């Protein structure tokens, strides 16, 4: 795994290198998830899935740990994100993906799977996948979405307030500028905390089978956006 304790991840080139390694390891973990029996048919299968899901969650946590340390050294670099494609940056909310995107993903995947299993469902057969979310799960997803929207809006307002004070930087001392920038570090950390918390909460309310499908779908979205974005950037350079 990419070493989250490395002290060399502060510079742009070093963090870019860390991200590339981290991204490749995420792809490897997702490949392992795809190989898991789904649905699990034994205790060993369920145990293996739980361990893999935990590995992916730890992998995400490692990323935000390193990102937080790098932001402390150069928070503006996190917003520039030179390791990301132009498309990825255009979709960023406070130097990363918007947490509420995950709820749209859950609803979309659930709808697609529900429609594909409609005959089985009408016959009373449980599929156990994301298309078979229980009423309780739907209610919890909806509650989480509302909570996340509120937190997202609060952080957005905090960033807007920070941006409104940009004129205060004119003629400021170095110390005042550093104090202003340090507030941006705090805003970014709140955004990243919400991103990680949202993934964890969704995984916790899903069954192991559903969690696997959700994490694969989330990763495939990330892989697809990054791949297409890099392809378009390459064409522009030609």
TrEMBL record:
InterPro entries: Seed_Dev/Stress_Resp_Reg, TGA_domain. GO terms for biological process: DNA-templated transcription. Pfam families: DOG1. Residues 12-235 form the DOG1 domain. GO terms for molecular function: sequence-specific DNA binding. This is DOG1 domain-containing protein. The lineage of its organism: Eukaryota, Viridiplantae, Streptophyta, Embryophyta, Tracheophyta.
